Task: inverse folding
C-alpha cells in the first residue's frame, strides 16, 4: 500500500512537471524534437533572417519526410531578435523557459551569441552552429564554451589563410586590409596581427563604419600604400562599392574577401570591377557538382525555392542543418542535452555536410579551420583551390 | 504629509508595493515558464529607473536627451570594471558608478547651457556616439567591441543569482527610485525644474540659477541612468556596445512620451506598456495572424508595434497617465459628468 | 606635394558628393521643421520608399519596354515624384492634421512610429531580399587632372544645389513661401490673416516627400544594394541639418557638405598620416558638431530665436 502511494506520488509529480515526461529532456516528445533558432527577421540583417531558416527547413523537411531522426520529426521555432543582444537574451529566455526547446541552433550575430552565454551556462542548453564566424565562438576559455559548437572557420583564421595564400603566390606582395569597425573587424584584425608577426610582414589597415557607402578615402590610402592585394572584411554591399571605386580610380589590386563576401551578388552587381575577386568560402559552391550541392539543388527544385533566394547564404542554412541533424542522430534514441553534447564531440573529420571537414573534441569546439577559395571568372564564381588550412 | 501630497491617493501605494512583492509568487503559481516573465519584469524594472530619470530631465526640466543609453553604458561599464577588475564590492559600486555616470551628465550639462531644443537633442545624441567610441577605445578594460562578461551582484554576503533574486534587487531599487524622484520633484528642486521648463526667463527673474539647476537636472538624470546600467550589467552578465545603441535612447524617449511626459507615474506606465507590448502583446497578435492568415513572422511584428504606437499617439496624445487622470476625474465627478470634457 | 594636393582635392570632391546626399535628406528635415517645428524622423524612410517605388517602376518599364534606356530612368524618376506627392499629402493627412494642436513632441513621436510602420510595410511588399538597383549612368565617370568623379555623383551634387535654390527662392520670394513663413512664426495669427494653414502644412509635407524621393532615386544606385535599412541614413543626415542651422534652407547644403568632407578626409588622408585618427573617425563629425554648436548655438546659418517672456 505504502509503495503504491509513493508510486502514485512520484507519478503525479511527473504529471505536474508535465510536458517533458519521465524519460526525456525538454523539447523531446514521442514524435518531435523542438529546436530553437534566433534570427534577425526585421532588423539590419533581415535578409539572412529569411535565407538561413529557409535553407535549414529545406533540409529538415527532407529529413522529416524520410523518417526523421530516430523516428522523431525535427521542428524548428524561429524567433526575431533584430540582431540586438538584449533582445536575443529575451527571446532565448522565451525559447528555453516557455517553449521548452531541446537545443538552440543558428543564433545569429557575434555579440548576440556572446550575450546569451550566461543563459547557456545556467540552463545547459547546447547551441549548435551559431550563425557567426567570429573566432571567439570557439574560444574554450569563455563561459559556456562547452555548450557551443562552432561549425565555421573563424574570421581570424580566414584572414590568416588569405594572407598566407597571397604571400605564397607572391612573396613581394603588399597587403592591405579594409575592415568593418566592429566586432567582426576586430576579429579579422586579430588574425591579421597574428600572421603579421608570424610571417614578419606588415599589413596596411583601413577601417570603415557599419553601413558606410563612401570608401574613396580608404581606397586612396590603399593605393598610396602601394597595395597589390587587398583583403575586404565587409559583407555584400561594401566589396561592391570598394571594387567599383577602385576601378574608377584606376587602382587594380587583387581583391580578396572574408567569407561573408562570398555572395554571388557581389559578382553580379560589381560587374567588370568584380572580375577576379577571390572570396574565402566555407563550403563547396552551391552550384558545383558535389554530392551535397546536388542534393541541395534537387531539393530546391522540388520545393520551388525562388531563384533569387538560392545562393551561398541559403546554402549555409542547409549545411548547418545537416550538421545539426547528424548531431541529433549521434545523441541516440533517447536524446538528452548531455548526450547531444557527447554526440557532437564524436565528429571526426566528418565531411558529409558539403562543407569543410568538421572535427569536435572535448577541448575543441571549433568545427573547422579551413576554407576553400572561389574566384569570379567571367562573372561566375569558380572554385580555384582545395581546402586551405 | 498633508498639503504637498493632498492631490494624491496615498492608500494605493502600499497596495501597489504589495502587488510588486506578490507578483513573482503569483506567476510561479500560474505558469511553468515564470522565469521568462520574471526576466521581462526585470527588464521593465531596469528601464523604468532610467525613464524616471529621463522624465526628470525631459519632462520636468524641458531638456531633451537623445543619448541616454550613453549614460546607461557608463554606469554599466564603470561598475563592471570596478567590481571585476578593481575588486570593489558590488554595494560600493552600486553607489559609486551611478555618481560617475552623473558626473558625465554634469559634463554634458555644459553644452546644455548654450543650446536648446533639437540642437540639444543632437548634442546629446553625439554624446551617445562619443561614449560608444570611448568604450571601444579603452579596450584594455572594456575589451573593445567584443563585449564584457560581468559577475553576479553580491550584497551583504548574498549573491543574487537567477531571475528570482534579481527581481527583488531590481524592483527594490526601482521603487526607491520612483519614491525618491517623486519626493524630489515635489521639493524646491523640482519646482525650480518646472519653472525652467515653463519659462527660462521667468525662472531666472524669480531668482533661480539656471546654470546650476540645469546641470543638476543632468546630474540627477545621469545618476538614474547609471543605476539602471549597473543593474543591467550585473543581472545580464554581459554587456557590449551593441546593447547601448542609439535606437535604445530613442526607445526610452518613446516610453516616456507614451506614458505621458512630465509625470513620474507616466514614465513608469509608459515603460511597462512598451516593454509588455513588444515582448508579450505583439507576439500574441502575430501568432493569431499566423494561425488565421498564414503570415510569416518578421516585418509583421514591427508593423504591429509601429501601428499600435501610432494609433495610440494619434488618439491619446497625453499618454497613459493623461488617460488615467481623465478616468479618475470621470469617476470623481460621476454622475455629474460634463460630456464634452471627455471626448 | 603635388600628389598630396591631388589626393586631398579628390577627397574633397568625394566629400562634396557624399555631403550632397546628406544635404538632400537634410533639406527634407528643414522644410518640415521650418513650417511646423516638427522634426520628421521618418524622413529617411520617405527616401527609402521613394527608392523602392523607383526601382519597381523601372523594373516594370523594363519588362514592358525592353532594356532600360535613359528615358526609362526619367520616367521612373517622374513616377516616383508623382507617388511622393500623393504620399506626402497622405502623411500630412494622417499625422499632421489630427495632431495639429498637440505638443510638438507627440508629433515627433508619431513620425518615429510612422518610420517603423513604413519600414515594415515596404519589407512586407518587397520581400526580405535586398535588391540590386541599376544606375542610369552605369559606372561612367569623368576625370579632371587626376580627380575622378562619377556622373551619378555630379547629378547628386546638381540636384542638391538645384533643390536648395528652388526652395530658397520659393520660401523667400513667392506668396506661398511667405505664407509658410508666417505659419511657422505663429499659426493662429497666420490663420487669422487668411493664410490657409492646413494647405500650407500639406504642401510642406508634399515638398519633403518629393525631396526624399529624389534623394532616394539618386542614392539607391550609389549604395549598390537597396534594402529597407536605407532609411537609417536619415539619422546621419540629421547632424547635417543641425550643423547648417535647422531653420535655414541653404544651411542644408552647408552642413551636409561640411560633414561629407570631414568624413572622407578623416577616413582618408588624415587616418593615413595619423594612426590615432582611425580610433575616432566615426565621432569626428560629432566632435566638430558639438564644437560648432558651442560657438553658434543655432548652427552655422541658423537665426537666433527671440523668445517672448
Result:
Amino acid at each position: 500500500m505504502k509503495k503504491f502511494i509513493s508510486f502514485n506520488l512520484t507519478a503525479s509529480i511527473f504529471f505536474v512537471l508535465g510536458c517533458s515526461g519521465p524519460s526525456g529532456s525538454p523539447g523531446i516528445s514521442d514524435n518531435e524534437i523542438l529546436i530553437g533558432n534566433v534570427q534577425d527577421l526585421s532588423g539590419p540583417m533581415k535578409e539572412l533572417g529569411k535565407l538561413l531558416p529557409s535553407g535549414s527547413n529545406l533540409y529538415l523537411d527532407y529529413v522529416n519526410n524520410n523518417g526523421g531522426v530516430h523516428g522523431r520529426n525535427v521542428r524548428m521555432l524561429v524567433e526575431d531578435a533584430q540582431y540586438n543582444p538584449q533582445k536575443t537574451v529575451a527571446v532565448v529566455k522565451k525559447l528555453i523557459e516557455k517553449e521548452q526547446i531541446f537545443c538552440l541552433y543558428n543564433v545569429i550575430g557575434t555579440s548576440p551569441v556572446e550575450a546569451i552565454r550566461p543563459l547557456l551556462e545556467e540552463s545547459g542548453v547546447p547551441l549548435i552552429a551559431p550563425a557567426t564566424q567570429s573566432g571567439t565562438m570557439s574560444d574554450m576559455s569563455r563561459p559556456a564554451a562547452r555548450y557551443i559548437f562552432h561549425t565555421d572557420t573563424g574570421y581570424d583564421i580566414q584572414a590568416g589563410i588569405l594572407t598566407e595564400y597571397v604571400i605564397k603566390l607572391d612573396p613581394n606582395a603588399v597587403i592591405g586590409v579594409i575592415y568593418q569597425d566592429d566586432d567582426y573587424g576586430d576579429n579579422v584584425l586579430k588574425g591579421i596581427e597574428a600572421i603579421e608577426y608570424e610571417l614578419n610582414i606588415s599589413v596596411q589597415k583601413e577601417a570603415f563604419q557599419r553601413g558606410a557607402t563612401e570608401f574613396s578615402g580608404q581606397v586612396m590610402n590603399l593605393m598610396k600604400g602601394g597595395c597589390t592585394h587587398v583583403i575586404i572584411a565587409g559583407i555584400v554591399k561594401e566589396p561592391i562599392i570598394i571594387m567599383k571605386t577602385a576601378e574608377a580610380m584606376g587602382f587594380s589590386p587583387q581583391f580578396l574577401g572574408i567569407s561573408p563576401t562570398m555572395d554571388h551578388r557581389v559578382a553580379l552587381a560589381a560587374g567588370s570591377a568584380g572580375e577576379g575577386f577571390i572570396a574565402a568560402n566555407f563550403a563547396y559552391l552551391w552550384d558545383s557538382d558535389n554530392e551535397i550541392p546536388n542534393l541541395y539543388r534537387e531539393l530546391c527544385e522540388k520545393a520551388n525555392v525562388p531563384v533569387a533566394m538560392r545562393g551561398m547564404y541559403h546554402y549555409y542554412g542547409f549545411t548547418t542543418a545537416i550538421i545539426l541533424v547528424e548531431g541529433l542522430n549521434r545523441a541516440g534514441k533517447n536524446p538528452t542535452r548531455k548526450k547531444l553534447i557527447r554526440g557532437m564531440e564524436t565528429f571526426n573529420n566528418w565531411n558529409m555536410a558539403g562543407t569543410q571537414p568538421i572535427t569536435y573534441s572535448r577541448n575543441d569546439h571549433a568545427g573547422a579551420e579551413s576554407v576553400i577559395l572561389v574566384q569570379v571568372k567571367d562573372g561566375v564564381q569558380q572554385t580555384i583551390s582545395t581546402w586551405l588550412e | 504629509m498633508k498639503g504637498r501630497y493632498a492631490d494624491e491617493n496615498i492608500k494605493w501605494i502600499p497596495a501597489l508595493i504589495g502587488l510588486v512583492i506578490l507578483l513573482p509568487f503569483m506567476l510561479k503559481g500560474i505558469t511553468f515558464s515564470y522565469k521568462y516573465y520574471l526576466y521581462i519584469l526585470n527588464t521593465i524594472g531596469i528601464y523604468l529607473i532610467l525613464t524616471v530619470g529621463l522624465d526628470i530631465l525631459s519632462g520636468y526640466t524641458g531638456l531633451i536627451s537623445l543619448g541616454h543609453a550613453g549614460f546607461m553604458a557608463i554606469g554599466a561599464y564603470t561598475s563592471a570594471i570596478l567590481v571585476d577588475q578593481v575588486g570593489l564590492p558590488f554595494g560600493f559600486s552600486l553607489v559609486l558608478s551611478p555618481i560617475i555616470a552623473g558626473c558625465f551628465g554634469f559634463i554634458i550639462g555644459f553644452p546644455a547651457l548654450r543650446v536648446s531644443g533639437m540642437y540639444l537633442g543632437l548634442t546629446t545624441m553625439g554624446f551617445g556616439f562619443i561614449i560608444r567610441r570611448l568604450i571601444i577605445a579603452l579596450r584594455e578594460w572594456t575589451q573593445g567591441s567584443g563585449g564584457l562578461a560581468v559577475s553576479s551582484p553580491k550584497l551583504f554576503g548574498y549573491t543574487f543569482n537567477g531571475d528570482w533574486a534579481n527581481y527583488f534587487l531590481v524592483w527594490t531599487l526601482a521603487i526607491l527610485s520612483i519614491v525618491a524622484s517623486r519626493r524630489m520633484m515635489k521639493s524646491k528642486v523640482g519646482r525650480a525644474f518646472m519653472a525652467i521648463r515653463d519659462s527660462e526667463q521667468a525662472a531666472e527673474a524669480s531668482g533661480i540659477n539656471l546654470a546650476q539647476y540645469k546641470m543638476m537636472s543632468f546630474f540627477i538624470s545621469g545618476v538614474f541612468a547609471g543605476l539602471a546600467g549597473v543593474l543591467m550589467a550585473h543581472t545580464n552578465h554581459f554587456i557590449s556596445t551593441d546593447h547601448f545603441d542609439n535606437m535604445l535612447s530613442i526607445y526610452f524617449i518613446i516610453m516616456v512620451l507614451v506614458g505621458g511626459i512630465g509625470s513620474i507615474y507616466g514614465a513608469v506606465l509608459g515603460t511597462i506598456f512598451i516593454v509588455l507590448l513588444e515582448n508579450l502583446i505583439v507576439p500574441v497578435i502575430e501568432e493569431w495572424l499566423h494561425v488565421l492568415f498564414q503570415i510569416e513572422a518578421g516585418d509583421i511584428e514591427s508593423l504591429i508595434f509601429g501601428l499600435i504606437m501610432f494609433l495610440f499617439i494619434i488618439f491619446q496624445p497625453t499618454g497613459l497617465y493623461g488617460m488615467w487622470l481623465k478616468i479618475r476625474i470621470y469617476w470623481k465627478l460621476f454622475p455629474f459628468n460634463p460630456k464634452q470634457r471627455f471626448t | 606635394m603635388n600628389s598630396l594636393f591631388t589626393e586631398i582635392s579628390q577627397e574633397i570632391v568625394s566629400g562634396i558628393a557624399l555631403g550632397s546626399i546628406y544635404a538632400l535628406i537634410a533639406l527634407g528635415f528643414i522644410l518640415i521643421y521650418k513650417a511646423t517645428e516638427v522634426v520628421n524622423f521618418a524622413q529617411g524612410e520617405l527616401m527609402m520608399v521613394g527608392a523602392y517605388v523607383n526601382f519597381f517602376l523601372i523594373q516594370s518599364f523594363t519588362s514592358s519596354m525592353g532594356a532600360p534606356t535613359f528615358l526609362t530612368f526619367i520616367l521612373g524618376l517622374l513616377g516616383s515624384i508623382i507617388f511622393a506627392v500623393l504620399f506626402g499629402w497622405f502623411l500630412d493627412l494622417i499625422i499632421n492634421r489630427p495632431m495639429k494642436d498637440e505638443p510638438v513632441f507627440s508629433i515627433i513621436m508619431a513620425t518615429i512610429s510612422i518610420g517603423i510602420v513604413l519600414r515594415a510595410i515596404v519589407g512586407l511588399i518587397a520581400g526580405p531580399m535586398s535588391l540590386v538597383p541599376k544606375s542610369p549612368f552605369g559606372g561612367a565617370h569623368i576625370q579632371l587632372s587626376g580627380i575622378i568623379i562619377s556622373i551619378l555623383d555630379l547629378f547628386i551634387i546638381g540636384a542638391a544645389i538645384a533643390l536648395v535654390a528652388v526652395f530658397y527662392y520659393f520660401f523667400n520670394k513667392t506668396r506661398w513661401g511667405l505664407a509658410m513663413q508666417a505659419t511657422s512664426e505663429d499659426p493662429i495669427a497666420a490663420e487669422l490673416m487668411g493664410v490657409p494653414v492646413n494647405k500650407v502644412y500639406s504642401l510642406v509635407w508634399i515638398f519633403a516627400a518629393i525631396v526624399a524621393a529624389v534623394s532616394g532615386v539618386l542614392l539607391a544606385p550609389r549604395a549598390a544594394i537597396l534594402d529597407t535599412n536605407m532609411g537609417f541614413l536619415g539619422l546621419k543626415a540629421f547632424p547635417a541639418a543641425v550643423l547648417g542651422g535647422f531653420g535655414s534652407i541653404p544651411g542644408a547644403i552647408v552642413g551636409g557638405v561640411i560633414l561629407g568632407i570631414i568624413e572622407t578626409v578623416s577616413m582618408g588622408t588624415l587616418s593615413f598620416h595619423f594612426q590615432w585618427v582611425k580610433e575616432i573617425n566615426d565621432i569626428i563629425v560629432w566632435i566638430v558638431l558639438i564644437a560648432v554648436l558651442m560657438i553658434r548655438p543655432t548652427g552655422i546659418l541658423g537665426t537666433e530665436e527671440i523668445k517672448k517672456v
Summary: Chain B touches chain A at residues 32-36, 39-40, 43, 144-147, 149, 162, 236-238, 240, 242-243, 245, 248, 279, 297-299, 301-302 (CB under 8 Å). Chain B is about 75% helix and 0% strand. The longest strand of chain B covers residues 148-149.
